[in-house]
């Protein structure tokens, strides 16, 4: 039987947050579902899920967008992990990252939360930080804009033009991580862009 992976795109629920920087994780998961022709369905764990396969005969993947706010992501992730019998080593959390420049990705497994409240809550609820993260760079605001206001604001017009490529790269990185492992994905996506 193929290993099941749980891929969670962090974000906030509601149309007012849909296109904000904080919801870039959910945008990546939407793209992964679109690639598979899968639609999201309501799940009792307080999430919307779409189930599919990495590729025919490959790993099963459960894509999830939570109905809870970012800072309380842990409970629904833990509930989904129990429901689908997925251990932390087979969970991928896709989230925004202030400390990475826009249009860049970083991948890691385990370690600290780097001040990201959603990642912190997931680690606490799972009782382990040993899950993979695909960290999508949104950069820091220029000047004195508050970071909380920045993450909850929509992408600029210039960033929106570059966003489809960033989302595609992040979706590709998730697929590579699951299909070939973390090291292969890091080698591909941590390299400087041409």
From TrEMBL:
Protein name as catalogued: Peptidyl-tRNA hydrolase
> What is this enzyme's EC?
3.1.1.29
* Binding locations of tRNA: 17, 69, 71, 117
Q: How does it assemble?
A: Monomer.
What is known about what this protein does?
Catalyzes the release of premature peptidyl moieties from peptidyl-tRNA molecules trapped in stalled 50S ribosomal subunits, and thus maintains levels of free tRNAs and 50S ribosomes. Hydrolyzes ribosome-free peptidyl-tRNAs (with 1 or more amino acids incorporated), which drop off the ribosome during protein synthesis, or as a result of ribosome stalling.
Reactions catalysed, semicolon-separated, are:
an N-acyl-L-alpha-aminoacyl-tRNA + H2O = an N-acyl-L-amino acid + a tRNA + H(+)
Gene3D superfamilies per UniProt: Peptidyl-tRNA hydrolase (3.40.50.1470)
Site positions (Stabilizes the basic form of H active site to accept a proton): 96
Question: Which GO MF term does the entry hold, naming one?
Answer: hydrolase activity
Name the species this protein comes from: Microbacterium kribbense
Entries under PANTHER family matching the protein = PEPTIDYL-TRNA HYDROLASE (PTHR17224)
Q: Where in the cell is it found?
A: Cytoplasm
Record keywords, A-Z? Cytoplasm, Hydrolase, RNA-binding, tRNA-binding
What family classification does the UniProt entry report for this protein? Belongs to the PTH family.
At what residues does the UniProt record annotate the site feature described as Discriminates between blocked and unblocked aminoacyl-tRNA?
Answer: 12
Q: Where, by residue number, is the active site?
A: 22
Top EC class, one word: hydrolase
Q: Which InterPro entries match?
A: Pept_tRNA_hydro, Pept_tRNA_hydro_CS, Pept_tRNA_hydro_sf
User: Is S-adenosyl-L-methionine there in the keyword field?
Assistant: no
